[in-house]
Every structure is written in C-alpha cells, then in structure tokens.
Amino acid sequence: NIPVSGFTYAQLRQFDFGLYRGYPFKGERIPLLEDFFKICARTGMHPMLSVHPSLSGHWGNIKAMAKKYGVLHQLNIKSDPYSIEVPMAVLLDDIESYTIDTSVAESFVSRFDSLSETYGIVNAKKTIEYNYTVITDALITATLNGGYRCGCFNYGNDLSAVEALIEKGVTEFTEDYNSSVGLNW
C-alpha cells in the first residue's frame, strides 16, 4: 500500500479506483467538486460541504462554480462554530443553509446570530446540529424556539430513535459512518 500523499494530483486523476471494487466499476476516477455539482444539478440533490481549512481561500471559486451549475441556492455549508465565518463572508445569503455542528451549540447561538447580522444572512436557514449523545427534548425545544432548525449527528442504526427525534422536530440527520438505516440527510 502506498499512501495517497506519495502521488501527484495528475497521477491520482489517472488512477482507476473502480477496479479496486471490481470490474463493473472499471473506469471510476476521483471525482472533482465540479463533478459533484454536476451530479447535484442533474439529480436535484442539495450539496453539503463541510468546512475544512484547505477550503479557506477557495470560497469565491466554490461560489462561482455552484452558481455555474445552478446549485448555489441549494448549497448547504456545515462547520464547527469557529470556522463558519469564512464561508459566510463569501457565500452570504445566497445559499440554502448554514449548519453548526457541535455538542455544546447553545453557547454559540449569539455568535451565529451576530455573524448572520454582520453578513446579512436573512433567508438562508440556520441549523444547530447536536451529537446524538447530548440531544435532549429541552435542547430540541430551545433550538427550535431560538429560530434554528435542529439536527442530529452520529445517531447510529437505531431507526426508532430517529423516528422519535423526527416527531420532536429534528429535521437533519448526518451519520459519519456507514449506517444500516441508510439515512444521510
């Protein structure tokens, strides 16, 4: 096994990753962000990008590319509370939603509100997404009453727990691992 870091970008773009999975997948290459946006445009999917430090200087290009493929207004950005400002400053109110994921999001509500005011975020939805291990009825109620959508991550494979959270008003679910439930909203 050779680590990915041992290859140039051009070499990786030529590598057939589909063969690893078997002959029916032959010809699969590493997709580019542009490829992802094209798929979203073609299928109606709403793209979600997690903020990563490597994207810092690229938000203008990302915005232009999402606009080019007609998915800018469906774009969702997910970030930790400290990194959300960089994409907000560029994407402004032109996207579908911003999501903060944290276990203690209630302490960041005033920062989220302040940034929204600074950058004129009025129409983009705002979600606070909690780790399944800390989510409670009171937290869901407080989040919804504060004008935010409520999300949950790392919920595992318990479909009945997901259904119960939906009944309580949780509208977004993200699972970092393969889940037999098959949800990743």
Structure description:
The protein has a six-stranded parallel sheet with strand order 1-2-3-4-5-6. It has eight helices and six strands. Helices cover 36% and strands 16% of the residues. With 185 residues, the protein is an alpha/beta fold.
- Quote the distance from N terminus to C terminus: 33 Å
Tally the helices: 8
Q: Give the radius of gyration.
A: 18 Å
Strand arrangement across the biggest beta sheet: 1-2-3-4-5-6
| SSE arrangement, N to C | HHHEHEHEHEHEHE
Biggest sheet overview: 6 strands, parallel
Tell me the strand percentage band: 15-25%
Question: How confident is the prediction overall: mean pLDDT?
Answer: 86
Form type: globular
- What is the tally of beta strands? 6
Uncertain runs are 178-185
What's the helical proportion of residues? 25-40%
Kindly name the structural category. alpha/beta
Record the SSE blueprint.
Elements: H1 9-14, H2 18-21, H3 33-43, E1 48-50, H4 59-68, E2 76-79, H5 85-91, E3 97-101, H6 109-118, E4 125-131, H7 137-145, E5 149-153, H8 159-167, E6 170-174
Q: Which structural traits does this protein have?
A:
185 residues, alpha/beta, 6 strands
Please sum up the structure shown.
This protein has 185 residues and is an alpha/beta fold.
